[in-house]
Amino acid sequence: PIVQSLLKVRGLNAWYGESHALHGVDLDIAAGETVTLLGRNGVGKTTTLRAIMGILPKRTGSVRLNGREMIGTPLHKVAAAGLGFVPEERGIFASLTVEENLTLPPVVAKGGFTVEELYALFPNLKERRRSAGTQLSGGEQQMLAIARVLRTGVTLLLLDEPTEGLAPVIVDRIGEIILEMKRRGMTVLLVEQNFRFASRVADRFYVMDHGQIVDGFAAAELPGRMDRLKEALGV
Ligand code: ATP
């Protein structure tokens, strides 16, 4: 049981037009935790991240960050409050160089990483500073997407399938970056299909089905549940 939640989500509903995608999602994340959201394709994992961030046309319920209600709060204030979202499609500027991506906008938000700090954390991005987004590998694009969000001053980082389509050695590198974020006190909520990766970084798991959270357990319980989970998730 969590004594005090950094993020407290209650009765979160979300719609795409008439299509009702989330049906009362409840979840809690304590400060400093890394939590992984599991579930079959289409159950609402991405929608949960979008609905927490507030980049969906319609949502109801409650999303509290440090006690502050984020539903009804404009996106720029949500970002300023410390929520950062890296979408599956990564959202980098493909035609700009790495350095241009990392200096746009030029002012670093309060609590955000400077370009020098980002280069220290992501040495490959420093090497590739003059390369355009289009010339980067999938792993470099993922790192750039995370680095861009870290400029905004993130308390809670939302990551949607950060390892998708990446080679194992790059997956390990992304894992190291998440563990480094954790050492720095950042809280992370990620959607992930890669069990090996998820078990390396996560403290806790939630399982989704049909737009709801249907299970939750600590990382220590993962090995004992693995077979049943794999069957339930169809992996
Ligand atoms: P995946 O791993 O395949 O991304 P997911 O668990 O993240 O799955 P969501 O992407 O959140 O699932 O989708 C939840 C439901 O909402 C699905 O039925 C999906 O078809 C629908 N949906 C997702 N995005 C949109 C959209 N932009 N417009 C309409 N319906 C959508």
TrEMBL record:
Entry-linked InterPro entries: AAA+_ATPase, ABC_transporter-like_ATP-bd, ABC_transporter-like_CS, BCAA_Transport_ATP-bd_LivF, P-loop_NTPase
CDD domains (UniProt xref): ABC_TM1139_LivF_branched
A GO term, aspect molecular function: ATP binding
Domain of life the protein comes from: Bacteria
Pfam families, per database record: ABC_tran
Keyword Acetylation: no
GO terms under biological process: L-amino acid transport
Keywords on record: Amino-acid transport, ATP-binding, Nucleotide-binding, Transport
ABC transporter domain segment(s): 7-235
UniProt similarity note: Belongs to the ABC transporter superfamily.
PANTHER family reported in the protein's UniProt record: HIGH-AFFINITY BRANCHED-CHAIN AMINO ACID TRANSPORT ATP-BINDING PROTEIN LIVF (PTHR43820)
Protein name: ABC transporter ATP-binding protein
Organism the protein comes from: Methylopila capsulata
